[in-house]
Amino acid sequence: MGSVTFFLLATALVVSALTVVVHPNPVKSAMALVATLFLLAVEFVFLGAHMIAALQVIVYAGAIMVLFLFVIMLLNLSDEEAEARRRGRALFRIGAWIGGGVLAAELAALFLRVPFPAPAAPPAGYGGAESVATALFVDYALPFELTSILLLIAVIGTVVLAQRRAS
Amino acid sequence: MTFPAIDWIAVLPLLLVACLGVVCLGVGLFVDDDEVLGWGALVGLGVTFITTAVLIGQHGSAFNGTLVLDGYALFFDLLILAVGCVVVLMSMSYVEETGIGAGEYYALLLFALSGMIVMASATDLILIFLGLEVMSISVYILAGAWRTQMRSNEAAMKYFLLGAFATGFLLYGIALIYGATGATRIDVIADKLGGVIDRHLLLAGVAMLLVAFGFKVAAVPFHMWTPDVYEGAPTSVTALMAVAVKSAGFAAFTRVFLRGFGGLHADWSMLLWVLAVATMTVGNVLALAQHNIKRMLAYSSIAHAGYILVALTAGGPTGGAAALFYLLAYAGMNLGAFGVVLALGRRGEPHEEIDDYAGLGFRSPLLGAAMAIFMLSLTGIPPLAGFAGKIYVFTAAVREGYYALAVIGVINSVISAGYYVRVLVVMFMTPGAVDVVRASRRPYLFTSIVFSAVVTVLIGVFPAPWLELARLSFLSQP
Q1: What digits encode the pLDDT tens for the residues B322-346?
Q2: A109 occurs within a structural domain
């Protein structure tokens, strides 16, 4: 039962993730991303990681998606532009397909031959508030702090690069 | 929940630089004088440099051993901080002339340095990734800081898009290695290499890391961004990219590959061999065809990455020490060369064509002599730093049995003379008319050029103590 639902969910997840990349309309891509993130949250629920599932929905499907939609709205890509973008240069497209295809085939072959161990049951308290907090503030305290510097840099960068030009 | 005790000594250099960045950003809001801000950054970096130098000989590790303070980290910390000081000196008048916001500029510069320090001190792949991102994102922004210049915008955009792509490779590589070994800590990975069930997953991860680091140090075939970004970015930022970003990239590259994947040397040395030959040859041959000095130096920096890759291919303590020494020598001569490029420009007239250097040797003998030192050192003429660096790199290659690699390296050095000496010919043997701003008007910039020249000569004349320092630093890794 568990593995059937897992594979159903996983298939839906991969399909919606592919839609994000392949779909020509940016708004529909963004919607597919919402679906991807929700499905990922459901996977976390199946693992018993309720805290992570909730964070996944609040942070990604909530906050970050709203940002995405705002950006798409502000950029206001017209259909012609999107069409022109899609066509690109034929030679590059073929090259990219071949390169990507070879890499995908290699990775697929790799995953098929690696003997992955059977999944063990997650430890007690997995994905709960306490284990998330321990990971964030004890085990990975330094990466956590560095990420805050990274966000500060991103904010400065936005202001530096996007502020109105003083003429 | 108990919080683990933190060894503050181990994080001291990082903490000081990051705090300095925040202070600079805050002060920049209220202080309009660019020079004051520059002095603040310079003094702060100087104090950090001295504090870090005092720590020499100490060993520490913090955050479950993911961040260490060993000789290796100290070597790169000091190198990066010194480069930071020189870049601040170079930026003082440049920031004012180009109208770049000084507060943000120095803050981003300091944040970039803090990211580099993390890359040099981290023994955990996750931390290396974060350090690399802190450094890279700051530098993307700095590359586009001269907003009124189209090519600065283009440089930032190009660097950002390709850099983000390379980051994907890094993360995927880390994920695959974690999948194969169950660890992200470099020393744990090194211990587990023998017991890995399936090597294919591991090797795929190693290859992905090679791509990501290859991009950061501008190795062929991951070098496509380099000439455009180096040309378009503000020159002081180009100097930072060519020297500090490359050093930090090699710091992480060397630690991960020689320490972490040392047991897989037989597997990756062949790949690295090809990469080294391609990088040296493509860099040097394409540099011959350049007319713009910044593009020429960009291809030259690609070629020098190739020489350092030769040392990494050789591997072992000899190769590691040679790589560290080469980075030290390279820092002095390359910073100086970019200093001269800055000195020739003036408000609104960058004078970046090689033909603009005509007659420079007569109109400004000091600048001409300095440029001659840097160009000869980059070629590898004794008794300058570049010569000593190349000797050690090629000796390491020969000692480990890579004769062909050493021969190709020497041939490449001869090719490189073609474009370095051409600059000298133009400077001293053709008449020209470009006026140079007097040295007394830009005291900071000239201080930095003289400092770089002195370092280049000093390392070249007395290489032995520096090599010993590099060797001890390399061996001190836990």
Answers
A1: 999 999 999 999 999 999 999 988 8
A2: no
Sign of the torsion angle spanned by Cα atoms B21, B245, B209, B228: positive
B148 reaches A (C-beta below 8 A): yes
Q: What is the mean pLDDT of the segment spanning B297-324?
A: 94
Q: Do B62 and A142 touch (CB under 8 A)?
A: yes
Burial (CB < 10 A; 0-12, 13-18, 19+), residue A8, is: exposed
Supply the pLDDT for residue B39: 93
- Asked if A14 and A82 sit in the same domain, the reply is yes
A156, A159, A163, A164: which to substitute to probe chain B, counting the most B Cβ within 10 Å? A156
User: Do A79 and A144 belong to one domain?
Assistant: no
**In chain A, which residue's Cα lies nearest the Cα of B115?**
A146
Establish if A39 belongs to a structural domain.
yes
Peptide bond into B221 cis (omega under 30): yes
Contact A153 B137 (CB under 8 A): yes
B1 with A130: Cβ contact below 8 A = yes
Element (H, E) at B115: helix B102-121
Above 60 in pLDDT, residue B301?
yes
Contact yes or no for B177/B125 (Cβ under 8 A):
yes
Domain that residue A140 falls in: 128-167
Tell me which of B151 and A75 has the higher pLDDT.
Answer: B151
Beta-carbon separation of B141 and A115 below 8 A: no
Alpha carbon distances (Å) from B225 to A61, B238, B259? 34, 13, 29
A-chain residues near B145 (CB < 8 A):
160
Q: Can you tell me the distance from the alpha carbon of B81 to that of A27, in angstroms, rounded to the nearest whole number? A: 46
The model carries a pTM of 0.91
Contacts with A146 from chain B: Cβ below 8 Å: 118, 127, 130-131, 134
User: Residues B383-397: pLDDT tens digits?
Assistant: 899 999 999 999 999
**Is the pLDDT reported for residue A29 higher than 70?**
yes
- Answer whether A139 sits within 8 Å of B64, measured CB to CB: yes
Whether the CB-CB separation of B310 and B363 falls below 8 Å is answered with no
Q: Å from B223 to nearest chain A CA?
A: 18
Confidence of residue A82 (pLDDT cuts 50, 70, 90): low
In sequence order, the β-bridge partners of residue B353 are B292
Hey, are the CB atoms on B141 and A157 less than 8 Å from each other?
Answer: yes
Q: Chain A closest CA to B284's CA: distance in Å?
A: 27
Same structural domain, A14 and A79 = yes
* Reported confidence tier of residue A167, pLDDT bands at 50, 70, 90: very low
Q: How confident is the model at residue A112 (pLDDT cuts 50, 70, 90)?
A: confident
C-alpha separations of A137 from B2, B15, B16, B30, B119 in Å:
10, 18, 21, 34, 21
Bridge partners of residue A5, in order along the sequence: none
Domain ranges of chain B: 8-475
Q: Could you tell me how many CB contacts below 8 A there are between chain A and chain B?
A: 81
Q: Which residues of A touch B106 (CB under 8 A)?
A: none
- A19/A72 same-domain check: yes
DSSP code at position B64: T
Q: Is A156–B144 a contact, with Cβ atoms under 8 angstroms apart?
A: no
Q: How far is B138 from chain A (nearest CA, A)?
A: 6
φ, ψ of residue B65 in degrees (nearest 5): 75, 15
CA distances from residue B297 to A8, A148, B36, B239, B416 in whole angstroms, order as listed:
55, 35, 31, 10, 11
Q: What gap in Å lies between CA A164 and CA B157, rounded to an integer?
A: 18
**Which of B419, B424, B238 has the alpha carbon at shortest distance from B339?**
B238
What share of chain A in percent tops pLDDT 90?
25
